[in-house]
Amino acid sequence: MVFPIEGSHWINMDILLQALHSRGHAITILRCSKSWYIKDNNSYYNTITVQVEKAFDQKFITKIITETIEYERGSLPLIHFLHLTFGMFGTFVEAHETVGAFVSAMLDDQELMRNLKDSKFDLVLTDPCWGGGIILAKYLNLPLVFNVRWLIAGEGHLAVAPSPISYIPITGSGNTDKMSFFQRVKNMILHLITQIQKHLVVKLIYQKICDKYLGPDNDFDLLMLNADIWLMRVDFVFEYPRPTMPNVVYIGGFQCKPAKPLPQHLEEFVQSSGEHGVIIMSLGTFVSELPADMANEIAAAFAKLPQKVIWRYKGDRPATLGNNTLLVDWMPQNDLLGHPKIKLFVAHGGTNGVQEAIYHGVPVVGLPLFFDQYDNLLRLKERGGAKLLTVNTVDKDNNFLNAIEEVLTEPSYRMNMQRLSRLHRDQPMKPLDTALFWIEFVMRHKGAAHLRTESYKLPWYSYHSVDVVLFLAGVALLM
Amino acid sequence: MVFPIEGSHWINMDILLQALHSRGHAITILRCSKSWYIKDNNSYYNTITVQVEKAFDQKFITKIITETIEYERGSLPLIHFLHLTFGMFGTFVEAHETVGAFVSAMLDDQELMRNLKDSKFDLVLTDPCWGGGIILAKYLNLPLVFNVRWLIAGEGHLAVAPSPISYIPITGSGNTDKMSFFQRVKNMILHLITQIQKHLVVKLIYQKICDKYLGPDNDFDLLMLNADIWLMRVDFVFEYPRPTMPNVVYIGGFQCKPAKPLPQHLEEFVQSSGEHGVIIMSLGTFVSELPADMANEIAAAFAKLPQKVIWRYKGDRPATLGNNTLLVDWMPQNDLLGHPKIKLFVAHGGTNGVQEAIYHGVPVVGLPLFFDQYDNLLRLKERGGAKLLTVNTVDKDNNFLNAIEEVLTEPSYRMNMQRLSRLHRDQPMKPLDTALFWIEFVMRHKGAAHLRTESYKLPWYSYHSVDVVLFLAGVALLM
Fold first, then answer.
1. What is the pLDDT of residues A11-68, one digit of tens each?
2. What b-and-e string marks burial along B283-312, b requiring 16 or more CB atoms within 10 Å of the CB?
3. A292 interfaces chain B, CB cutoff of 8 Å
4. CATH superfamily for domain B2-254+431-454
5. Nearest CA in chain A to B182
6. Do A236 and B423 touch (CB under 8 A)?
7. Which SUPFAM superfamilies match (chains A, B) (predicted)?
8. Which residues of chain B lie closer than 8 angstroms to A226, CB-CB?
9. A243 touching B (Cβ < 8 Å)
10. In this model, does residue A77 exceed pLDDT 90?
């Protein structure tokens, strides 16, 4: 049984579900009636649809995107930070409230819940960025597998493994794993804010549902930490090394695969680039257009290049667009990245695109917009594989053109991405196969309790041995 | 290049070396002229022999064994503990001094060192329970791979990964991963003692060698933490789950393999047991005999059983020995454990034997003597697969006979061991293949720096964010 999330998270989950289906598993998906991405019954899964009034959809994302770009371009960094942290918290809570209403409607439907109980599922697979799957697994008393990078707020890693904030950069901090004192201060402040946000959302929404439907003494955070396996959508070619746990399995890049041949018209366009090669640009699923002045600046920069350009862009045709640039509504991104003529990828820094760039070893000029995109791209920049721009400077002083020319002419960018590609591909098992192995492991053994510590059930003062240290200090003083 | 350790550690390393040889790698071993286990040139490795006066040998082990059994049988637990902790520290330092002398002799031989530098090895493989390989890797500037469970003192895990002492039992504490308050106090005290012992041995021996041969600013502990890959000789079927790091690879049970047919005389003896089956007993490589009264008690207990018994024992034939018991000098332990007629394994709790018992799913009666043996067996007992005896009570009140009869008649022991066996065997890749993959990974990429945090280079107050918390508290107070 799968309790998925909308948007780009669903795109990832879908790949896993198709692979599970091809191994003969029967899949049932819980979706709400206003689901944005998750279609009704499909050839490889069944759906159970719960009627809701409102759902997480384009409206929330558009609001976030528009406001973020506006603030990023028009404000001081501090104002931008305050807006991100506090101004958007309302939108964030509102989005989780739609999830809460969906989960409550589901648990209220007693016939549905009886059917689910009778169906004897092997496990619940969920993305814990929303809390619904966690509550459902407990209600049905089923093993729980996460397809995870983010929790309700903050990274999954920070909750499941010991995570010294001194060298683990908090998303949004713009820090790497090597920080100055004041970077560490900023990291700590952001960590505390994220934890408070998570605590508030859990308290306002998910804990109430636990109390109502699961009975007393079901702490939502403990239910979350009780998951059998965390399939973590990173690997340590992309992510900075950090402590981990035995039940965390790294599947970063599981969506990557060798390039297929391009459609004929694209192949012809690519070949027409001659020795100069091709640049591709995409700002992801959600961002299909940009403010007109920014689009014009980008188009003008592309027009000055000898390369051909394929640009995924749905907005009005920029006035400055050159003959070398092809605007497309959609492009086979993975197949293009794997094409030998592709010299450069202008990317927004979503996880999928960054992983595909690593897999194919293509250097990147990054134009991050929101969420984890800056931090994702920072990881490539740190390894010498990308150059980063910001929304508020991309259209000034030829920044965009200069960045592209630097990455095209300086060979180290490509060499570094090729090195990351070699490291990423040199694994004992393909990440998708690893994910399938561990999902099936949980089915075979009805969980993976032997890989999970129960340390999170200790009170914090015992976990950190504060009581023991005070006791020993007391004895020493007495003596 | 391999810098191995003597005794049972060598037996483990040797299995890895044979596998490396069979994959076409050339292996050179550094040994001392008085080496106890490590033979001169062999069909699958070359040796370089360094002349020494004294070496770690049977003498040290015999001293440890004799004193331990004597103290365990004759003293109060506190005296026994004090003896183990302080009384034997001299023997421990003396053993490491022989290693230090060996390493110094090696580094003093300038022609040898020049040859080693010219030989362009791909990596140094060592067991960091002795410090020689770590220093050698730095001297030759080579990538470093550990085949590890123990460091100079204490477990490798405790040094490389964040290890809350509140739920990670210290070896020798007799604790599990769930402890009462006073068990946690004991755990903390033992942890501190172990750390002090380690610090003293490093300071007295290995740091001096670093200062003399590697030049200033080469901290031995940092050189150790700089290893590329830690091949850890446990897995989480045997070991309690705990935090880990990306460059720690679990190879527990890599020495296990399916049983081969028994020699004819043993097969006939085993088959003669009929439906009752066979018990096997071994106290490991080092302990070939026991005090006469204890041996008599054990033999008398065996004589009362309907089972046949194969007992690896080199001491005088006990007077009470029954017709059903076969004394042998050596036995094919793995092949016997994999034989369907074997009902029970009386073991001392060395890692090899415990892993083989898990692999073949055979229940255990444990008679631990020293080192990690009690703690190893405790892990089986906790999972319901073993019954534990102690040296000071084994010969009283029919304890031995009762334990054997309980494990033979109560089916849960075998069922639990079979469950552990299923979990252990259900891995994406065989542990030996995993070890080979990561050794070759380090060869292919000249290290694995991307999997290693550099967090250990932070001062402790920064690592734990003490400075940041004090700063933020100061700011809050000022405001």
1. 899 999 999 999 999 999 999 998 888 988 888 999 999 999 988 877 777 777 777 7
2. bbbbbeebeeebbbbbbbbbbebebbbbbb
3. no
4. Glycogen Phosphorylase B; (3.40.50.2000)
5. A468
6. no
7. UDP-Glycosyltransferase/glycogen phosphorylase (SSF53756)
8. none
9. yes
10. no
Domain boundaries defined on chain B? 2-254+431-454, 264-425
Task: For chain A, say whether B456 makes contact (Cβ under 8 Å).
Answer: no
**pLDDT, tens only, B163-199:** 999 999 999 889 999 999 999 999 999 999 999 999 9
Which tops the pLDDT comparison, B17 or A84? B17
CB A177 to CB B453 under 8 A?
yes
d(CA A248, CA A231): 6
B461: contact with A, CB 8 A cutoff: no
Contact A164 B164 (CB under 8 A): no
Total beta-carbon pairs less than 8 A apart between chain A and chain B: 143
How confident is the prediction for chain B on average, in pLDDT?
Answer: 93
ipTM of the complex: 0.94
Cβ contacts (< 8 Å) between A451 and chain B: which residues? 236, 241
B243 near A CB under 8 A: yes
Contact A469 B188 (CB under 8 A): yes
**pLDDT for residue B172:** 86
Of A162, A166, A423, the CB nearest to B243: A162
Place of tokens 């909308």: A6
Q: What is the pLDDT of residues A117-176, one digit of tens each?
A: 999 999 999 999 999 999 999 999 999 999 999 999 899 999 999 999 999 999 988 999
| CATH topology for the A264-425 domain | Rossmann fold (3.40.50)
Q: Is the pTM of this model over 0.90?
A: yes
Is B227 part of the contact surface with chain A (CB cutoff 8 Å)?
A: no
How close B435 gets to chain A, by Cα (Å)?
11
Closest-CA distance, B24 to chain A, in angstroms, reads 19
How far off is chain B from A296, nearest CA to CA, in Å? 40
- The answer to whether the beta carbons of residues B148 and B252 sit under 8 Å apart is no
Same fold, B2-254+431-454 and B264-425: yes
